[in-house]
Design brief:
By secondary structure, this protein is α/β, with parallel strands linked by helices. The protein has twelve helices and 15 strands. A seven-stranded mixed β-sheet has the order 2-10-9-8-7-3-4, sandwiched between helices.
């Protein structure tokens, strides 16, 4: 029904992703090269046609779209009165860190993880306390003994959970989430769960919201959600932050207000409502297309670049690839690829401990673009091995 094979030029649009040299192919930053769902485009167009772009607030339809989506799709019922608007998940997490912890506090993460977490922690004059994920036989798991050590530290203030996990593509199981919640509660640590990738999962699979697992998790967590990643509308800047705990919910509203990241732009509300209420078919087809791309990429690499090992993943449109057999220095390797083939992918080292020796590749693109990228990847690997 939807044409994900269509190529739409993003050059000269101010795109962070596509602001590259001629001949380069960017497959790095996490946005998609697909047109938004028609219902989202219509909602934005209709709002633009009104012609007056004044100060804008959320409404009951905005809150209901979140509540209905998470209840129907993920079995998690939220109180609409405890949803707070934010201009984005990252601005919200930054505000939460500053509001709920003091300078010099530790913020626990599980690495390798989304690199911007490190930026906002350090910029807030807090310290990253990373528990490195275990990597064995091409799969990731949580080192719960190490995680408890990090959570029990005297300086620990918060834990940021990536659920599902970017960049390794893991969907955490209910049992894993329950255990994280138990340890966090035991050591009086609030969990901030970034669930922005939650709806990009392999068809037939789903994810479990951290707060939905049990009462302990529900009352000791802050959930960060948004349509922007899964519906490809990051530039519209719209997110919601939720906590069932009254104290946390009030603190969130205060934190977002203090930092002035709680005001909706004129397109944020209609685009969100259109996405959640009227674009589920588009999302389902997009996920099917993206995971076809993942299967194609994994098969191509297996047959043509055997020195690389894609990590199996059932979430996100980002493929995490083990390049240790070619080069343990992922920055050197990705720089070589870009210089010699024009392929622009992300070095795993930016994702912290455990990330070096890996690269991250964005698969959310038309299949012709994907094949171009894969061929460049093979060419680059062949040249790199020749020069080694």
């Amino acid at each position: 029904m939807y044409d994900f094979d269509n190529i739409t030029s993003r050059m000269n649009t101010g795109s962070i992703k596509w602001d590259v040299k001629e001949g380069e192919l960017p497959m790095w930053v996490a946005d998609m090269d697909f047109m938004c769902a028609p219902e989202v485009l219509k909602a934005v167009s209709d709002r633009a046609a009104h012609g007056i772009f004044g100060y804008t607030d959320t409404n009951e339809a905005w809150a209901a779209s979140y509540v209905n989506w998470w209840n129907r799709r993920h079995g998690f019922l939220m109180d609409p009165k405890k949803l707070s608007f934010s201009t984005g998940v990252i601005p919200a997490i930054a505000s939460i860190i500053r509001y709920f912890t003091g300078e010099g506090s530790d913020v626990v993460v599980m690495s390798p993880v989304y690199n911007i977490f490190y930026n906002i922690i350090n910029q807030s004059k807090r310290f990253v306390n990373a528990s490195q994920l275990l990597y064995k036989d091409g799969a990731y798991s949580i080192d719960f003994d190490d995680l408890e050590k990090k959570l029990s530290g005297t300086a620990a203030g918060l834990m940021i959970l990536c659920n599902p996990h970017n960049p390794v593509g893991r969907i955490w199981t209910p049992e894993e989430l329950e255990r994280i919640g138990h340890l966090a509660h035991k050591h009086h640590i609030t969990v901030v769960s970034d669930e922005i990738h939650c709806d990009i999962t392999r068809p037939g699979t789903g994810y479990t919201p951290f707060a939905s697992v049990n009462e302990t998790n529900r009352m000791n967590s802050i959930t960060c959600i948004s349509p922007t990643k899964c519906f490809n509308m990051a530039g519209i800047q719209s997110a919601a932050i939720y906590a069932d705990n009254e104290v946390l919910a009030k603190g969130i509203k205060d934190a977002l207000n203090i930092d002035n990241v709680n005001e909706a732009n004129v397109f944020a509300v209609p685009a969100t409502v259109a996405a959640f209420d009227r674009s589920e078919d588009w999302l389902n087809e997009m996920c099917a297309y993206v995971f076809e791309n993942r299967d194609i990429a994994e098969k191509y690499i297996e047959e043509n670049i055997p020195a690389l090992d894609p990590v199996k993943g059932d979430a996100t449109y980002l493929m995490w690839v083990d390049v240790h057999k070619i080069c343990k220095d992922s920055k050197r390797f990705t720089a070589f690829l870009r210089q010699n083939t024009g392929l622009f992918i992300t070095a795993g080292s930016v994702y912290g401990a455990g990330g070096d020796g890996f690269v991250r590749i964005n698969l959310a693109c038309p299949k012709s673009t994907l094949m171009d990228g894969l061929k460049r990847l093979k060419t680059g690997c062949d040249l790199f091995l020749e020069e080694a």
